[in-house]
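Morning. Coffee machine broken again, so started the prediction first thing and wrote up yesterday's gels while waiting. Chain of 343 residues, entered below exactly as on the submission form.
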Amino acid sequence: MPPSNLGGGRRPFLYSINPSYREIAVLSSHHLIYRLPGPGETDRVDSDPPDFPPVVFFEEAMYNAYRFIQSCFREPHPSEQGYSFKALVHCRLSYHQLLYALRYEQELWQYFEDNFRREWDVSRNAVTLRRRTPGIHNTFESNLTSAIRDQLEEIRVAHRSLRPLLGKLKNGGRAAVSMNGRNASTIVPAYYETTPDGQLLFSGERYPPFIFRVSYRETEKEAKEQIEQLFKMMGQKIVTVLHIKINYLSSEQRNAGSHHGGIVSIWNWTECNGRKEPSCDRKIFRSGTGNTRPGTVIIPIQDLLPFQYQTELPPRLADSVYIQLSHSFLSELLQNVEANYGE
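Came back before lunch.
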């Protein structure tokens, strides 16, 4: 057990916990959700409010998150209920405590880094952990990364004038993106943090201008909310988000011969009433019958660069040079992964 107060007992953590931060635990489906007592509920927090289980300290939310990760670590193939965990917590230090506890066990921490995507948002007092799905999810993600990297190299070779700018684009992998110049490993944790499935970093800039996400068990609505919050919290530090949604199929559906459908969305900034707002261009590239829908995803090279560097592009190349992902390519990639893993 790591040196923490996750679950009671000794309290050797760096921070003292204000005992007035108490929350109501709600069990809903496979999510554990926590909320703070509302106005006027102070006198009720030690009793059992109607329709709610017993009250727990907010530390227990992080303890349950820790145990959730541990259970996935022990069981390589968790049940349908073992893929996501959401908690609303009052204090960002509790999120920091969770990461501290995980780092105490190196093997568990490495498993967490390799297999979980996480979002932490102090503005909503929310931490969400999503377990990466082996097979389809990870393989699709790695192949998409390779395709983008290969096309960037082709552009660099073909256009000498773009080499200085493209030479500054680096693969950032799944590294956490944190807001406010803080990192979750420091004494004061970030106000906002997300771990994307892939990103392009620009040399000299802290934040990646380009991020992509691959969702499988995560619903499209959940992913949309997370991306909207990413733009809200990070602002124009983020230029473009590429999102691939692979429709989840139960084992019964897969055994019956159903196919994974696929949706691709490009998120970026557009002018609206004199100000920039995030917008989404969404297209289905593969139907649930396995048929490919016609179309191509175009990502202009300028949408991979921070806004302050886009003016350095030669005008004739700003819109004419781009990353191109055809629907047939995406569909074939999904079909191949589906055939190999069948998950």
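The chain has two domains: 22-131, 136-341. Going to sketch it on the whiteboard this afternoon.
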